[in-house]
Specification:
Layout lengths: L1 E5 L7 H13 L2 E7 L2 E6 L5 E7 L5 H9 L3 E6 L2 E7 L11 H31 L5 H14 L1 H17 L1
Antiparallel strand pairs: 1-3, 2-3, 4-6, 5-6
Length: 167
């Protein structure tokens, strides 16, 4: 048996998305395909799999092969995001081994957020000068993306400061 769930998560909230996928797993729904705001699940053993997400900087077959060698499977891809799973062995499924790797991942996510937000703000500004009546949509979307990513930027800043103090 399978089911499809339509759900949206902002780019900067990948941890919440992974927590939701793990909760679905605990309920016996295992992710098998992912699309734009679309998740396809197959019914299976509750809690069998643990899920994580990572935004890749580039398509790196060596890195993905390394993950496969450690028992991590790629369930799906959506743009730069990879949806990963591994069998639940009772230990936390952590992708990042140190503070620097977490910071680099946060930087990748923030870069995409700021690019998308900036492009929308720019296009909205151009549309306003041309008198388009829906220019506010781009401006509002751009502002929402930039403001939505702000908590992630603050978390990143605190983590970087903590790392600096430990040096």
């Amino acid at each position: 048996m399978s089911k499809v769930v339509y759900k949206a998560f902002p780019l900067w909230d990948w941890e919440k998305e992974a927590a939701w996928l793990n909760e679905m797993s605990r309920q016996g729904w295992q992710l098998c395909r992912v699309g734009w705001c679309r998740y396809e699940f197959e019914q299976g053993e509750p809690g069998r799999w643990q899920y994580q997400l990572e935004m890749l900087q580039k398509n790196d077959p060596d890195y993905l092969a390394f993950l496969e060698d450690t028992g991590i499977q790629v369930v799906g891809r959506l743009f730069s995001w990879v949806y990963l799973r591994r069998e639940n062995d009772g230990t936390p499924f952590e992708l990042f081994s140190d503070t620097d790797s977490i910071l680099r991942h946060m930087d990748r996510v923030l870069t995409v957020c700021y690019l998308l937000g900036g492009v929308n703000l720019f296009l909205g500004g151009i549309d306003m000068t041309q008198g388009f009546s829906f220019a506010w949509v781009n401006v509002a979307l751009g502002a929402a993306i930039c403001l939505g990513a702000l908590p992630l930027a603050l978390r990143r800043h605190k983590l970087a400061q903590r790392r600096k103090m430990q040096e």
